[in-house]
Amino acid sequence: MAGGDLRSLALVSTVVTAAMCYVRFAAQRLRPGLPRLAAFLPVLAVLPFLPLAFHAIHPRAISGFFLAWLAESKLLLLAAGQGPLHPSLPLPAFVAVASGPVRLRADKPAQTSPSGLGLISSAVMAALLAVIVSLYRYKEAMNQYLLLTLYAFHVYLALELVLASMAAAARAVLGLDLEPQFDRPYLSASLRDFWGRRWNLSVPAILRPCVYRPVRAWLGSAPAGVLATFLVSGLVHELMFFYITLRPPTGEATAFFALHGACAVAEAWWARHDKWWRPPPLLATPLVLAFVMVTAFWLFFPPITRPGADKVVIAECEAAIAFLRDAGAWAAGFVRPA
Questions:
Q1: How far apart are CA 223 and CA 201, in angstroms?
Q2: Which residues have CB under 8 Å from 134's CB, separation 6+?
Q3: Residue 104 phi/psi, 5° resolution?
Q4: Which of 52, 54, 162, 336 is a Cys-bridge partner for 59, taking CB atoms 3.0 to 4.6 Å apart?
C-alpha cells in the first residue's frame, strides 16, 4: 500500500470510529424507528464516499464492501431495533461489529472446530494464490476461459485470506470473531446451497433481515423475497464494481444476480416435487459450479476486465508479493548469525 493510501487508511479509520461512536451515542438515547434513522442519516450519507479516499483497488474494494454494504445495512437494522448491533455493546466491540463482518464470540453457536482458517490451511491458500499470481505473467498467451477461471480462484482465495487475517487480529485484540465467510463452496449441491449457506456468508446474513424477510412478509411470498434479495445483491454489486473500476455501472452484475435468483426460485420449485428427477450429489455439485462459472464468465467478470481493472489488481498483487519476498529476505539476513 502506497504512502498516500496509508494516510487514507488512518483518515478513514478515524472518521469511521468517530461516526460509530456517534451512532452508539444516538442509539442509546433514541428509540428504534424514525428518530434513530434520522439521527443516523449523516453517517449513512458519508460511509459510501469513504472508500474513494484510497487510490489502490484492494483497499478501495475491501473498504467499500465493509462500509458501503455491511455497515450501511447494519445501521439500517439498528435504526429498526434489529440486527447484530446493540448500543449496550462496549465501544470497541460496537465499532468493530458495525464496520466489518465481525460479531462477538458469545453470539456464535457452539463449534467443535475453530471458526477461522488454520495455520496450515492459510499457508496452503497463500501458496496457491502466489502460484496463480505468478501465472499471470503468461496471461497474454492464455485461453480466455482459463484466465477467467484463475480469476475466480483468485477472488475466493484472496477473500478467505484477508478475512482470516482479520479474524486473527479480532480475536487477539478484542476477543471478537469474524463471521465465517465461506463454507467449502466447492461442495455446493444447489444454487441455494451455494449462495445461502456456503459463499460469502456475511452477505446472506445481512440480506435476509434487510430484504428477504420484509419482502416475504409484505407480499406473503417466499419466491418474491428470494428474487428481491438477489436483485438487491446485484444492485449493490454494481456499487462494488464501481469501487473497483471507477466506471459507471453496466447492469451486468444486476443481470447476473437476477438470473441466479430466478434459477434459485425455479430450483426450489422443482425440489418440492419429490418424485421428479434430480441429479445425484456427485453430478449436482459439478453442474452447480459449472453454471456459476459459465454465467460469471458471461456477466460477472466483463465489467471488471473490460476497463482493465484486472490488470491493475494483478500489478498490485505482484507488488505485494515482491514486498513480502524482499522483507522475508531482509529478515532472514538480519537474524542469520555472522
A1: 20
A2: none
A3: -65, 145
A4: 54
